[in-house]
Amino acid sequence: MDSITIKDVARICGVGVSTVSRAINNHPDINPETKNRILQVIRENDYIPNNSARNLKRTVSRSIVVLIKGIDNPFFSSMIRIIEAETQKARYSFILHRVDLMEDEMDVAMEVIKEKKPKGIIFLGGYFSHSYEKLKKLDVPFVLVTIAIADPKEREQYSSVSVDDFQESYKMVSYLCSQGHTRIGILAADEGDESIGKLRFEGYLKALRDHGIRPDPRLFFHSAPDAECYTMGNGYRLMNQVLASGEDMTALFAVSDSIAIGACKAVFDAGKSVPEDYSIAGFDGLDMAQYYNPSITTIRQPVEDMALAAIRLLFDVIHDSANNRQQVFKGQLIEGNSIRRIENG
Amino acid sequence: MDSITIKDVARICGVGVSTVSRAINNHPDINPETKNRILQVIRENDYIPNNSARNLKRTVSRSIVVLIKGIDNPFFSSMIRIIEAETQKARYSFILHRVDLMEDEMDVAMEVIKEKKPKGIIFLGGYFSHSYEKLKKLDVPFVLVTIAIADPKEREQYSSVSVDDFQESYKMVSYLCSQGHTRIGILAADEGDESIGKLRFEGYLKALRDHGIRPDPRLFFHSAPDAECYTMGNGYRLMNQVLASGEDMTALFAVSDSIAIGACKAVFDAGKSVPEDYSIAGFDGLDMAQYYNPSITTIRQPVEDMALAAIRLLFDVIHDSANNRQQVFKGQLIEGNSIRRIENG
DNA sequence: TTGTATGCGTTATCAG
DNA sequence: CTGATAACGCATACAA
Questions:
Q1: Do B72 and A84 touch (CB under 8 A)?
Q2: Nucleic acid strand D within 7 Å of A31 CB
Q3: Cβ B145 vs Cβ B106: under 8 Å
Q4: What confidence tens digit (pLDDT) does each residue in A87-127 have?
Q5: Which CATH number fits the domain that encloses residue A15?
Q6: Around Cβ A189, how many Cβ atoms within 10 Å?
Q7: Rounded CA gap, A114 and A107, in Å?
Q8: Within this chain, do residues A29 and A64 fall inside the same structural domain, yes or no?
Q9: Would you say the C-beta of A56 is within 7 Å of strand C?
Q10: CA B345 to chain CA mean position, Å
Q11: What CATH number is given to the structural domain containing B225?
Q12: Does residue A345 have a pLDDT over 60?
């Protein structure tokens, strides 16, 4: 670990450390010749600046941190790519930091801020039930993506990018109704959910009611509280419960595409078919949904646009902190082949 | 950013900074009472140690870094989970660091080492064509996962965990032959590939030859050099080329499950079916492969075992650096419904 | 068991 | 344009 430091570089070049520092950090007030000479020496000796020392000394670090909860959520994959690209385009460095499902993203944020001194933070996924106070402590500009904050009172306090999960669910379930379905089950998050799972559930309820259908609790299939909800495995389990229940229904609204896919598989394994025996709708618009067989009818969240909006919004807030705003995107209903039309609705 | 430091804590408690440091780091030589008092104050004031300062000061940091190339590869998702769990079980902290597809993982490793001073590194994904020299510079124990190092001469230099991509491909293609297929195409990586894509391709060639089938270049469908190879989109494109080629074949070996799934979709969109018109085999054993319809016949890499082996091997090497070894796992052929048997082989 | 002092590698401030 | 030098926040050797 006896690696070369800025001092060594300075000594080799016969200059002071501050000059080397200037060379590294592209400071304007340095003789181009000396700069090149230093850069040359740096390359020849594989000098790598110590990031810890830099972060320790610096007050801010021209970097953007993305805090992601649920790193295996394919929904985020393309977002990351876009955010990184945009970040680098702005000549900021991009730091991805994963937060465990059990961790409080706010606590993690505080730590990362201390360590990295980023210019801004993007929160991908997770919940934000009662973090108002913590939110305020965060003195770094940030944008919430995909995150439901219940209370709209605190509008000024934060920026966010999302779809209206309630409305979009409503749209999907209304569509099911319009296709003649009347007995529509739901494969939902766990009952205690206070996040998007809840919003999507409520959109479902509202849509049914507005279509003159009385929601039937026997058609609610909630995830186990301890299960990882938005997974194919969970969808598979839930659908098997549906099959075992013997309840009569023609359609199911799965609150995510992965759940929908798992559900389809359960139907197939039971020797039945989608959409003939069960119509199944998803939510999110994952690539997987359109590659599946049958392709899943779903609500597509405009991930690319959302990612772009998130990073741009963040830069806006960085440049003018008064600029906080909530940006809500429209989802798009994509018709696949997982839903059939019932003639005698 | 005027946050509280160790000095403040010391002042508040009326003790010296070193005592606070001892409390934080669980040093043995400290009065339990003072320790508790300090910890109490720390909690009350939300003191968060500055990681940069710690890393700067420390020579090693009781942490494991996982460097992952291709973070959206679902193949790695479960691995990460396992590695993290095991890492924490050993009371090490877990640092996940993503490396861009364009970056040299070795350079990134050097940087991260300087910054974090980890006890060990796990490389997930990526290539390692000619990095021997760089490898040696890495004076931190490390394990390569899923990475093909061509040259076996350097055995002593590194540890690795993988499957034998050549053998496993051979297995898969032999299976296709055994099912009576004789005209077997391949959906492969790009022609210049020097990594697992190449090994899998060669396994395919060997299997054909050993079964008395002469490989026919017209049945080789390589990815475009600039395409992201292991994706559904790429599989879709490749399969459309197959369909457009008019070449006669009954089966295709896709070098990954995602490619296989994309290929299936292309077949469906062409109004044909799997496995009736085309038998399609995959590789990897993603969850997705079994949830797909039809489920994909594939080679399952024992991800859980491999992840566990990787982290344990790493700890072994950390404790005894002479312990370098290469661990090769057997893949398991999982029969799905994507391959049909041809009677008159 | 505890406190003091030093330095980790940088950047920033200031004087040249 | 350049070079000393003082922090940054913490861990540790050493003294008490």
A1: no
A2: yes
A3: no
A4: 999 999 999 999 988 888 889 999 999 999 999 999 998 77
A5: 1.10.260.40
A6: 25
A7: 11
A8: no
A9: yes
A10: 37
A11: 3.40.50.2300
A12: no
